[in-house]
Design brief:
Distance between the termini: 72 Å
CATH architecture: Sandwich
Radius of gyration: 19 Å
CATH topology: Immunoglobulin-like
CATH superfamily: Immunoglobulins
Largest sheet: 4 strands, antiparallel
Order of helices and strands: HEEEEEEEEE
Strand content: 35-45%
Number of strands: 9
Length: about 120
C-alpha cells in the first residue's frame, strides 16, 4: 500500500514540475497609423511543433514570421510581428499550437492579442 502511495505521489510531483507553456508579452504595444510596426512574441516552456503552429491576423498588411535558428530552420518559439496599419481599426492576432513532448507530454497553447492603432500626431 505504501509503495502505491509513493508511486502516485512521485508521479504527481514529476508532472507538476514540468514547465508550463508561456506566451509573452501579455499585451502588444500600440501601433501608429501609417507607421511601420514591429514587435516580438516569445513562446517558452517547450519547443513549438511547426506542423501544429497556427497564426491568424485580422489585417492583411501584418505578418507573423518565425525567427531562423542557427541550423537554418524555422523557430516558432520567437515570432516577429510586422506591418504598417492603414486604418484606425484594432488589429487582432491569434496564435495557437503545441510543444514537443519528451519525458512529459507536449502542451497546447493559445493566445489572442489586440493591437490598438492610434493616430500618428
Amino acid at each position: 500500500m505504501i509503495r502505491k502511495y509513493i508511486i502516485v505521489v512521485s508521479s504527481l510531483l514529476i508532472i507538476g514540475c514540468s514547465d508550463p507553456v508561456k506566451v509573452s508579452p501579455d499585451k502588444l504595444p500600440d501601433a501608429y497609423l501609417n507607421q511601420p510596426y514591429q514587435t516580438n512574441i516569445e513562446i517558452t516552456g517547450g519547443a513549438v511543433v511547426e506542423l501544429s503552429f497556427y497564426s491568424e491576423v485580422s489585417d492583411a498588411s501584418f505578418k507573423i514570421m518565425p525567427s531562423i535558428a542557427e541550423g537554418g530552420y524555422k523557430d516558432n518559439n520567437m515570432l516577429t510581428v510586422t506591418g504598417t496599419p492603414t486604418t484606425l481599426e484594432p488589429i487582432y492576432i491569434n496564435i495557437a499550437g503545441s510543444t514537443y513532448g519528451t519525458n512529459f507530454p507536449g502542451k497546447d497553447f493559445e493566445k489572442e492579442y489586440t493591437i490598438e492603432v492610434k493616430d500618428a500626431q
